[in-house]
Amino acid sequence: MPSLHPAVAEVRRAVRSALTGLPEGAVVIVGLSGGADSLALAAAVGFEAPKLGLRAASVTVDHGLQPDSAEVASAAARAAATLGLDPLIVRVEVGTEGGPEAAARDARYGVLRDAARDVRAAAVLLGHTLDDQAETVLLGLARGSGAGSLQGMAAASDLDGIPLLRPLLEVRRATTRDACAAQGLEPWDDPHNRDPKYARVRVRETVLPMLEAELGPGIAEALVRTAAQLREDAEAFDEMIDETIEDIVEPAEAGIAVSVAALAANPPALRHRIIRHVVASEFHVSLTRTQTLEVARLVTEWAGQGPIDLPGCRARRAGALIEFTGAGSGL
């Protein structure tokens, strides 16, 4: 028998590892655009899922953003069927909130969530690769949005209660292309992936190659290692916050309050995380670093300053407490 192509074997190993442990008879859904990454993922899922007693389906979202989008979606669905997956195509209207990339992503994730709920899927699988992770980390670094964005994408996360798996985060993009070629699969090349008006494309086509040329090979892998280390640090901080927060918060009228003494006793990194965590949990908004530091000044540099207006809430010093109240509470 001919030997298995190394690229095919690598993608299958990654998928097998992600699927192992899911309940026998469960359904898994592949988000399939028709590009090389998701097509290689679909092929591996189509091969590995039956061996683990799983049923596999694919969901292709037609965003309607390009003239041939319906044909591209149909081709992806046909490919899925030949690979042993039950294909589904969903046409969506993409809004404008947050820009075209964010709006399309939100629409796509909404379709995947609804499809997974409809069939009670055990997991949704996406084809993000090591290269995607490196780009995400570099974009987060450029935005200066803190360690949270530098963690990149998680290999396993949650999509409104549904496990979201990214089995290929340690697989290079070139490997998925090689895997497609070895299996006679013809991926679709999204023209948006070459349009320099998108920051991610500029990172992919210009910034990362320039860094590789100037600093040597291995930049993408180094960025991904950094993301993994930061995620480990964040998980440790989260455990510390979970252990601490119940003892230092209490209900307040129209909001929640945190002990000044307890915040002051913690190092700045943990203090700032507690502040962000409290606001995010209670008011479902995210604070910038500048906003977080302003709230922290109510603890460390108290000089009688008044309330601080934040997204969706206000913060003020009230004796031995920092009180967070809803923006419309009038407090």
UniProtKB/TrEMBL annotation:
<dbReference type="Pfam" id="PF09179">
    <property type="entry name" value="TilS"/>
</dbReference>
<feature type="domain" description="tRNA(Ile)-lysidine/2-thiocytidine synthase N-terminal">
    <location>
        <begin position="28"/>
        <end position="205"/>
    </location>
</feature>
<dbReference type="InterPro" id="IPR012094">
    <property type="entry name" value="tRNA_Ile_lys_synt"/>
</dbReference>
<dbReference type="GO" id="GO:0032267">
    <property type="term" value="F:tRNA(Ile)-lysidine synthase activity"/>
</dbReference>
<protein>
    <recommendedName>
        <fullName>tRNA(Ile)-lysidine synthase</fullName>
        <ecNumber>6.3.4.19</ecNumber>
    </recommendedName>
</protein>
<keyword id="KW-0963">Cytoplasm</keyword>
<dbReference type="InterPro" id="IPR012795">
    <property type="entry name" value="tRNA_Ile_lys_synt_N"/>
</dbReference>
<dbReference type="InterPro" id="IPR015262">
    <property type="entry name" value="tRNA_Ile_lys_synt_subst-bd"/>
</dbReference>
<keyword id="KW-0819">tRNA processing</keyword>
<dbReference type="InterPro" id="IPR011063">
    <property type="entry name" value="TilS/TtcA_N"/>
</dbReference>
<comment type="function">
    <text>Ligates lysine onto the cytidine present at position 34 of the AUA codon-specific tRNA(Ile) that contains the anticodon CAU, in an ATP-dependent manner. Cytidine is converted to lysidine, thus changing the amino acid specificity of the tRNA from methionine to isoleucine.</text>
</comment>
<dbReference type="Pfam" id="PF01171">
    <property type="entry name" value="ATP_bind_3"/>
</dbReference>
<comment type="similarity">
    <text>Belongs to the tRNA(Ile)-lysidine synthase family.</text>
</comment>
<feature type="domain" description="tRNA(Ile)-lysidine synthase substrate-binding">
    <location>
        <begin position="259"/>
        <end position="317"/>
    </location>
</feature>
<keyword id="KW-0436">Ligase</keyword>
<keyword id="KW-0067">ATP-binding</keyword>
<feature type="binding site">
    <location>
        <begin position="33"/>
        <end position="38"/>
    </location>
    <ligand>
        <name>ATP</name>
    </ligand>
</feature>
<dbReference type="InterPro" id="IPR014729">
    <property type="entry name" value="Rossmann-like_a/b/a_fold"/>
</dbReference>
<keyword id="KW-0547">Nucleotide-binding</keyword>
